Amino acid sequence: MRDLKISNSNKIIKVGNFEIGSKTPVFISGPCSVEDFDTMLSLSKKLKNIGVNMLRGGVFKPRTSPYDFQGLQREGLEILKAIRDEINIPVSTEIMDVRDLEFALDYIDVIQIGSRNMYNYTLLKEVGKINKPIILKRGISATIKEWIYAGEYIISEGNNNIIFCERGIRTFETTTRNTLDLNAVAYIKEKFNLPVIVDPSHGTGLSELVERVSLGSIALGCDGVIVESHENPEKAISDARQTIDINTMERIIVKSKLLRELY
Ligand code: PEP
Ligand code: MN
Prior knowledge:
By secondary structure, the chain is an alpha/beta fold.
C-alpha cells in the first residue's frame, strides 16, 4: 500500500482558523441530526464557548428504517449555513447522494462521507473533484486496506484533503454498538501519518462511555474527536443513547488538551 497517492495526501488540513493534523487536537461536536434552527443555534453557541472547533449535524440521515426521521434535507443545510454565518464557526454534514453535492457546497465547510457510503465509489470520485476537506468514515465492516483505498478513490480525482474517521466496526460483540478499532488509528498514523479523527459516539453507542473512549483516542495520538452532543441528550431525535451533554463535552476538551501536553 506504500506507493499509493494517499501517502502524499495533506498531513495537515486547514479549516477556518484551525488545523487538523497538527499538535492541537480538534473537537467537532453537535447533534446526530439537525432538529430545528433554535435548538441548533442555542447548542452551537454553547459548544463554541467551550472550545469546539467545528459543528456537526446530520441533515441527510442514513437510518436503518425508511420510516424513521430522514433528516431535514436541504432545509437543514440552510440552518447550518445560517448558524455558521451567525456565530462564525465551520460546519460539517454528511452528503449521501451525488445529486445533493453541488448544492451543498455553498452551505458547509467539510463534507462527511458516512460509514454506509464508504464503498460508494461514484460518490467518492465526485467528492474527489471538489475543493473541500472530506471526513471519510470507515465502513461498518471495512478492512483498513479497503478504507485506505476509499481514500485513494478521493485523491485519485485530485482532492487531497482527506480526514480519516474511525467510528467502530461490526464484530461479534453486541454489548457496545460497534467495536472501536484503535489499532486502525495507530496504523494510519504510524504508516501514513495522515489526519485521523475518532468518533466515540458511534464507536460505543453508549453516552456513559464516550468520555473515556475520547480520552483514550486522544492519548493514542488521533488528531481529534467528533462527538454527538445535545442540550437534552435524552430528547435527541436520533442516536439519543450515545449523545452527551455540554458539560461532558467540556470535560473531554479540557482533559484532552492536558493529555496532549505529553506529546
Ligand atoms: C453520523 O455521524 O450521524 C452517522 C450516521 O455516522 P456513521 O456514518 O459513522 O454511522
Ligand atoms: Mn448519529
